[in-house]
Amino acid sequence: MTSNPLSIFIVGGHGKVALSFTRQAAARGHKIFSMIRQPEHADDLPKGSSGSVEPVVASLEQSSVADIASLFTKYAPSVILFAAGAGGKGGPERTKAVDEQGAIKVFDAIEQSGIAKSEQFRRFLLVSAVDVRDKNKPPPSWYQKPDLERSEKTRNAIGAYMDAKYAADKNLSGRTSFPWFVLRPGGLLDEPGTGKVALGIHQSLVHSIPREDVAATLLEVAQLPKGQADGLMLDLLSGDNDIPSSVRDAAERGPAIQYDCASYPTRLARLASVGFLQLSTGYRAEPTFPEMLRSSLSAGVCLVLATLAAVCEASPVFYSTKLGTRRTAHFAQCQAPKTGSGNPLAGCPSGTIFVSKTHPAARFRTISAALSALPDNGNTGTVLIDQGQYHEKVVVTRGVTPDISSANSNRVEVWQSSYVNQSDVTSVLHNCEATVLGVGNGGAIGNSNFKAYNIDFAQRQFLNGQEVTEYQLGPAAALCVQSSNASFYGCGFSSYQDTIFVGRDSQAFFFKSIVKGMTDQLYGYGKAWFEKCKLLSRACGGGITAWRGDPTDPLVGVYISNSIIAQSPDASKAKSMVGRCHLGRPWNAYSHAVYLNTFMSNIVADAGFRIWSQATPNFDPKLTRFAEHGSSGPGGNTSGRDTELETILSDAAAAKITIHKVFGGSTPWIDLATVKNSSSG
């Protein structure tokens, strides 16, 4: 028996998983309120257990939200489990009524009753299923032939059920007023449980799991302390790990969720309210919805976790619980909101440095000062960044180990106001001295492994004390990468001229990031790959790209893949941008720029690319390499392209252009797990 019995309300108490859950929970001394449709169903509920089991006769389909809310108020449960399901039986109408509308009734009832505000309430549990996703989007890229066959077979048999589950998951994902957890079991078996599971990402649909093990996993989650495992959506199959340790491991790592902001429901990442920086040696940190800025140090790893209130169209992907020799760090409590006069460092590692623009407990007011305070002694150091805007230039010359997190709406912004005065002939200010974020300092040795997650870097223009947005004052990079390997995930980069610079001997990878600018948004003479990014123009000047090629390395260039080109929401209103933005122009005759499978709005010029200028074309048909393949959208019609400037690639030629071929060899500085596990869309 447990020393701390729970009061658990089960919706759909007569289902097989629910009955198994009731038996196991009652055996541990928990009090169960089992909502059943028919009075005779009470005969099937377990009896004689250590805990008590009380039937609650009510129809989910016929009950109103107010009816269900009154039950929650009456029984005051600490955990609510939704295990109801038509299982595809009774036709599409009943399936929708139970699995979708019934679930949403319960969500609404939790909010209406106010039960989640009570001290005893821990969490809401929802039983979903593997492969629940948007059927109109392509399946995840890791699906193999057996997975595709299983997915098709399942949808042919119980498509209405899968659609209803998807709609319920989508609705729940936007709820922020109560803590929730979703379990997505595989095919259910009526056989004894093994007590061994695979909880998290396992990249297979062909394995099943006994209902007893599903119930046991739900019970372990129900028993977790308040505040743990909130926001997780985990797949569950039979595996090799015992259930209690699997659940504890998932909880210790916090809601480690990746988002594919193109294929799944709107999801509010609500649990993190402050940023975080971890400097450690060889650990893999997987905190609660973090926004991470990471850089490199020979003695360890540097992670800056910024604030997050992320809303994105997303598909959840979860870490494997089989970590091998890797260890995890639990930062959920450290990042969790602290109400009132609570200690902002509660739950943080000893010695954590707190950065805040306003909090009286903060030791530092700037990120740069906190970074400078970290000792180079190889020990773990931690910086917690309060939410807000930080007006400063941040240069990080320390490196990282991989970590996975994703978000779409960032609440920490690092901004600067500086630009190169091109009219001042005495000025020797290099563009990278006027940048917001510098990776490497321009010397022969930079960062070998830099990663940033979900932080916005912005250049703001001010003239005579007023912010200027309608035109550019001069080159002002938001990011400057020099002699380094760097990758960015869910980051924002905004400026007006020369937004992102990737210099010589540098490699940069951008994933699901947003770039805003007016002229030559992407420029440099290293290697840069933009995957599933948004390139948003504030005005049309020069080209979207301006690259300098290298005659000794034909792979030097800029590559835009599966991305979107469109007008920025804050674009200048002075003149129309339709048909005025060129895909790129050559910084030298060896310039190399490629667009693959990219959506182009009507701002893209019919000709596609252009020369540098009439006076200095910088174009040589034998040397300059501009290319497109698979362009779509109003600006993606290649029939009007200037074929003297660019090549429309064949399928075969485009297939040869890959991330691995461009960067070559081992790429530990790219978080391939995030890229691979993110559903295409």
UniProtKB/TrEMBL annotation:
Its EC number is 3.1.1.11. SUPFAM superfamilies: NAD(P)-binding Rossmann-fold domains, Pectin lyase-like. It is an enzyme of class 3 (hydrolase). CDD domains: SDR_a5 (cd05243). GO terms for molecular function: pectinesterase activity. Pathway: Glycan metabolism; pectin degradation; 2-dehydro-3-deoxy-D-gluconate from pectin: step 1/5. Keywords: Aspartyl esterase, Hydrolase. The keyword Hydrolase applies. It comes from the Eukaryota. One of its GO terms (biological process) is cell wall modification. Pfam families: NAD_binding_10, Pectinesterase. Residues 361-663 form the Pectinesterase catalytic domain. InterPro entries: NAD(P)-bd_dom, NAD(P)-bd_dom_sf, Pectin_lyas_fold, Pectin_lyase_fold/virulence, Pectinesterase_cat. Belongs to the pectinesterase family. PANTHER family: ACYL-COA THIOESTER HYDROLASE YBHC-RELATED (PTHR31321), PECTIN METHYL ESTERASE (EUROFUNG) (PTHR31321:SF137). This is pectinesterase. It comes from Moesziomyces aphidis (Pseudozyma aphidis).
